[in-house]
Amino acid sequence: MAATKNSLLCCVLFFITIAVVPTAHAVDQFTFNGFSGADGQILRDRVSILKPSGALRLTSTRTKNAIGHAFHTRPIRMLNRTSPFPSSSSFATTFVFSIVSPAAGKGGFGLAFVLAPSPEFPGAAADHYLGLFNSTTNDGDPSNHVFAIEFDTVNGVNDTRDTDGNHVGINVNSMNSRKASSAYFVDDRNQRQEVILQSGDPIQAWVEYDAVLKRVDVTVSPAGNRKPTTPLLSESLDLTPVVRELMYAGFSASTGEKASAHYILGWSFSANGDLAPPLNISLLPSPPPAEESPSRFAPSVIALISALCAVTVILLAVLIFATLYKRVTMRFEALEDWELECPHRFRYRDLYSGTRGFSDSEMIGIGGFGAVYRAIIPNSGSLLAVKKITPNSIQGIREFAAEIESLGRLRHKNLVNLQGWCKQRSDLLLVYDYIPNGSLDFFLYGGGQRGLSWEQRFRILKGIAAGLLYLHEEWEQVVIHRDVKSSNVLIDGEMNGRLGDFGLARLYNHGTASHTTNVVGTVGYIAPELARTGKASTRSDVFAFGVLLLETASGRRPIGGGGGDDDSFILVDWVTECLQMGSVLDAADARLERRYVAAEEMEMEMVLGLGLICSHPRQESRPTMRQVVRYLNCEDQLPTVDRRGYTDDDALGSARRVNSRLLEVVMSTAPDLGSDMYSSSSISGASTSSIYNGR
């Protein structure tokens, strides 16, 4: 009996081992910012090679009727067989490619992103079959189990659905596309912009499959642009009968009697339901220049033509040398240390043109360190915001570097995304997403024309809380924003809140303490311990967020929001008094007129109570942003607000005295400032325009 049990146990362990082993060999996510050092991770055959620059070349202009393949060495699990009804998995991929035509003229045929059960394609033909199928045995055969997105430059012989030579198509088991379209993208003005696939320029493509909706989306755009919101192709397609359990992902390209060089410059893939990891465009290799095709002319003729061209070039160079030299010397600038790792650099002339010469008509705001302009970038048509740092401002230069260092590498849906920068002599420019609806303080205090409902306010607050949690705990370093306030909360087109202006931000490693600095921020949002010690922390950000909670719920400014010229009004104290009198809902914005259901009334009461807890005078009594997010999402119950904790004369009086002392310092300094400085000056980093506007 014991021997029988041991035999059964061994069998069970054997079958468990067999079931687990294939999973260990599968991969579900990877990123290649160039392919230097990736030789062991890419399977190549036929004419494909890895260039020393890190570019993956599939074909060359020097080889006709050739095929090149490149696939990841590890397969991807694309079919879930654990359920009684197997289904395909969602995936997303993005890659940057370049199709370089020969210098003598146009080349031939394109490339394809491919999912296949094997990285080998025996019997595959070149030219319009792109190295995947052939005309006699398997084009259109369902047993191929091949899914491909073609980026072609020539009409296929049998590909009747393709509209023109410069097209993108969705193919299943055949070169006859299920759906195809001329290559283009839709810009921010909702205008179609053509994408020339064989231009030689880097082009980025996104391929996304939603296994729940059974839909494939394909998008293309010049590399470096934001991903267009409207896909080029969107097709209802169930890949369950197409894919097998394990599939190989990669690329295939071919040439015909005319040849082009096909390059893959970067690639990322995710099969876990998430978006594909973003590519760092600045790290990708540049596509090589056009390659010369084999010449039909004799060497002597080539030499004569070359000599004539050389003489012409020399004569032209003599005529324009002075002008070119002047332009080069005017535009040359050495890179600063902080410029080595950050978003890409914009051309000054594009920003100058996009803002109409930094015209006042394009100005959308002004802050403590400079003005912000709306810009439409030439060629791409992208709509962006450009912050022009005030010249000769040391603090402004520090803000310029701080925003690139911090915001430039942060990525979260509730943060403003920095697109790049520009430095032209004394002009320092930051380029980031254009947020169409302006800032939260405009909605709260802009005259009431565009009031916010409670549902919109609550969603904005939850978004900003999620952004602060990312800064404090979820990024690679701790980021202390140090200037959380309503004027730094921007509202996007979907009425989501996004936190911006990282000019005062500081970064620290997790587990280390912050350092003492000058007191910075905006009066009304500055935590008491920050005013006393000058030491910012995540808890001081929580204090400012608590004030933002109260401000958004009440519709009143943190300082002097009681009406009239009463500068003694402090929002935190007033809400505390409402709580003491047992009527905390009296602090709700009167413009809402209590037009909310019972659930929203509970949310309002919770937000006011949470605002008081976050703005507690003692930092150790404040929650973390993770706790705040859980409270706002109703995942944890908000602790009962202890009225005695907010009626302690010493604690509350201390907070009042700190705010009053800061106001006295700024008020006493303001009369000595000129009119220009008054509108946007700073005292120890605190913006007087923010103070006088109650922000």
UniProtKB/TrEMBL annotation:
Any one GO CC term of the record: plasma membrane
Enzyme nomenclature, EC number: 2.7.11.1
Domain Protein kinase, residue spans: 358-641
Signal peptide range in chain numbering: 1-26
Membrane-crossing segments per the record: 301-325
Pfam families assigned: Lectin_legB, Pkinase
GO MF annotation: an example: protein serine/threonine kinase activity
Catalysed reaction, written as an equation: L-seryl-[protein] + ATP = O-phospho-L-seryl-[protein] + ADP + H(+); L-threonyl-[protein] + ATP = O-phospho-L-threonyl-[protein] + ADP + H(+)
Membrane topology field: Single-pass type I membrane protein
SMART domains: S_TKc
Name of the top EC class for this enzyme: transferase
Cellular compartment(s): Cell membrane
Record-linked CDD domains: lectin_legume_LecRK_Arcelin_ConA (cd06899), STKc_IRAK (cd14066)
Record keywords, A-Z: ATP-binding, Cell membrane, Kinase, Lectin, Membrane, Nucleotide-binding, Receptor, Serine/threonine-protein kinase, Signal, Transferase, Transmembrane, Transmembrane helix
Keyword Kinase: yes
Coiled coil: none
Keyword Repeat: no
Cited PANTHER family: PTHR27007
UniProt similarity note: In the N-terminal section; belongs to the leguminous lectin family.
Name this protein carries in UniProt: non-specific serine/threonine protein kinase
